[in-house]
Amino acid sequence: MKYLKYCSLFFGLFFFWTCQSESSTSQEASTTSPSHKTADHPNSSPGAFAGMPVLPKTQKAQSGKLYPVDEGQLSPDFQRFREELLQAIHRKDARFIEQMITEDIKVSFGGDLGKAAFAEMWKLDAPDSPFWQTCKKILELGGTFDRQNENGFMVPYLAGTWPDLEQPSEYAVVTGREVELRKTPSWDGAIVGTLDYDIVRLGPKTGESQFSILEGEKWPWVKIEMPDKSGMAYVYGKYIQSPVDYWAYFERVNGQWKMPYFLAGA
């Protein structure tokens, strides 16, 4: 009987210690993970194809902010194409991309044209090609139809809705709700505030960018000026976009959606 009594005591203490250990690990992880809110995905299971986030069909207007909009869902044809493209990105399907881009695709404002220039720049066969996460990011930010061409669509949404500000290269949009601002470029940096789709002024670049990995993607920390001009802070690069960052233009030609532009700049 004493043996059973001691065994019960031992296993009880072991169970208590295990629960405490798991609780401690969970709390530690939560202090180094972002807690901001972005658009909802149809499927948010880790490693699964998430699909296009749910975004508003019309844009809310408010001074100092640039809220998201996705007119793509107004066209079932474009919506199907975009979902196929996101699936191809998830698979890293280089053949799909090569067939989607136009023969004269423009990849820079320096005159680089064509599939060869695109292949040289993005190297889709390389396991670390930045094209996949760059294209995924701007697609998931939604977009707008070209007011001059009903068969044209621009992503991300700020490419077609950016306000008339001087020197757009000096600004960016925080692309989420309750996006954390950090004192230093790290998940361990102290949180000094949060922003919701705010237009912010970029801070000066000093030294090399600091990178962090989140959900398998590697993005730099971006320095911005605090909205109240009290100092500088950092936003994780996945959740901030400048009007001169990469954008894409899609056009329906002979019933098929193609990509004639994929470049950075305004």
Describe the structure.
The chain is of the alpha+beta class and 266 residues long. It has two domains: 59-162 and 243-266, Nuclear Transport Factor 2, Chain: A; 165-242, SH3 Domains (SH3 type barrels, Roll). The chain contains six helices and 13 strands. It has helices spanning 2-31, 76-91, 94-100, 114-122, 131-140, 158-161; strands at residues 101-106, 144-146, 149-155, 171-174, 179-182, 191-195, 199-201, 211-214, 217-225, 232-236, 240-241, 246-253, 256-264. Strands 1-13-12-3-2 form a five-stranded mixed sheet. Helix 2 runs antiparallel to helix 5 (131-140).
- How many helical elements? 6
The CATH class of the largest domain is identified as: Alpha Beta
**What percent of residues are in strands?**
25-35%
Write the CATH fold name of the largest domain: Nuclear Transport Factor 2, Chain: A
Number of domains: 2
The N- and C-terminal alpha carbons lie at a distance of: 81 Å
Major sheet strand order: 1-13-12-3-2
- H/E series: HHHEHHEEHEEEEEEEEEE
Arithmetic mean pLDDT: 85
Output the radius of gyration: 23 Å
Number of strands: 13
Assign the structural class, choosing from mainly alpha, mainly beta, alpha/beta, alpha+beta, or little secondary structure.
alpha+beta
Q: From the coordinates shown, what is the CATH architecture of the largest domain?
A: Roll
Compile the SSE list and pairings.
Blueprint: H1 2-31, H2 76-91, H3 94-100, E1 101-106, H4 114-122, H5 131-140, E2 144-146, E3 149-155, H6 158-161, E4 171-174, E5 179-182, E6 191-195, E7 199-201, E8 211-214, E9 217-225, E10 232-236, E11 240-241, E12 246-253, E13 256-264
Parallel strand pairs: 1-13
Antiparallel strand pairs: 2-3, 3-12, 4-7, 4-11, 5-6, 8-9, 9-10, 12-13
